[in-house]
Amino acid sequence: MLVDPAIIEPIIGLERSGENLEEEVGVRLFKEEVNETMGCLSKEFQEVLILKIHYGLKENEIASLLNLKIATVKTRLYRARKQLKHVYTEKVSA
């Protein structure tokens, strides 16, 4: 009997996911915390991070969409990540 791998893989994955369920929950909680922490950033930093992380846009695409220079987008991304890391670290250690 031939079985389509696309059908069987999710079933097999469910059997094995018991081991990784805790890890998966941890990753989801971390993502939620990061998204919540992004709310503390300025609008300019939020824009570029959301477009980069959630929508997977490249720097030149973000620049075109926001009518900015590529260098400005790169600078904002760098500063946004740095500030996000700082705010998240303070939040976690508190």
From TrEMBL:
Q: Which Gene3D superfamilies match?
A: Winged helix-like DNA-binding domain superfamily/Winged helix DNA-binding domain (1.10.10.10)
Q: Where is the RNA polymerase sigma factor 70 region 4 type domain?
A: 32-84
Top-level taxon of origin = Bacteria
Q: Which UniProt keywords apply?
A: DNA-binding
Care to name a GO molecular-function term for this sequence? Answer: sigma factor activity
Q: Biological process GO annotation list?
A: DNA-templated transcription initiation
From the Swiss-Prot or TrEMBL record, give the protein name: Sigma factor-like helix-turn-helix DNA-binding protein
